[in-house]
Amino acid sequence: MHSIALPSPAIVASVFWRETASGQLPFHLGVTLLRLLVSFTIAMGLGCAAGIVLGRNKRLNAFFDNWLVIFLNIPAIVTIILCYIWFGLVESAAIMAVVVNKLPNVIVTIREGTRALDQDLLDMARSFRFGWRKTLAHVIW
C-alpha cells in the first residue's frame, strides 16, 4: 500500500544504509549519545546529593516536597522548549533540558531510598567504626 505520509520500509532501509556508509549517522549518533551521557551524569550526581540531603533532613524535605511534585509533573516537551528559548539552540540547552527533566525523578528515588534505610544498620556500622566507603559498600549498597 502506497502512503503519502510515510515512506516504505525499503526507502527507509536505503536511506539508513546510505547515511551509515557515509559516516553521518554514526557521527550524529555518537554526538547524541555523548550528550545523553553528560546529561544523565549531571542529573545523577546532583540528584543523588540532593536526595540524600532531603532523605536525612525532615525540614528541607518538607520545604522541597511540593516543588518536587511540581517539577515531576512538567512535561518534557515544555522543559525542552523553555531551555531552547532561554539558552538558544546550543548543546548546553539540550543538556540542561534533560538534566532539569530527570533531576526530580532521581531526587525522589534517592530520597525514598535514604528514608527507607534501616537506622539500626547505620548505627551498627558506626559502632564497628566502618569508614564511609565501607559503610557505603557493605551497608547501603
What does this protein look like?
The protein is 84% helix and 0% strand. The chain is mainly α and 141 residues long. The radius of gyration is 22 Å and the shape is elongated. The model has no long low-confidence stretch (mean pLDDT 93).
The secondary structure category is mainly alpha
Number of strands: 0
Order of helices and strands: HHHHHHH
Which percent range describes the beta-strand content? under 5%
Shape: elongated
**Amino-to-carboxy terminus distance:** 55 Å
Q: State Rg.
A: 22 Å
Helical stretch tally: 7
How would you state the average pLDDT, rounded?
93
Main sheet summary: none
Number of domains: 1
Specify the helix fraction band: over 70%
Features:
single chain; 141 residues; mainly alpha; 84% helix; 0% strand
Secondary-structure topology with pairs:
Layout: H1 9-22, H2 24-56, H3 58-72, H4 76-87, H5 91-116, H6 119-127, H7 132-140
Structure summarized in a few sentences:
This protein has 141 residues and is mostly helical. It is built from 7 helices and no strands. It has one domain (9-72, 102-140).
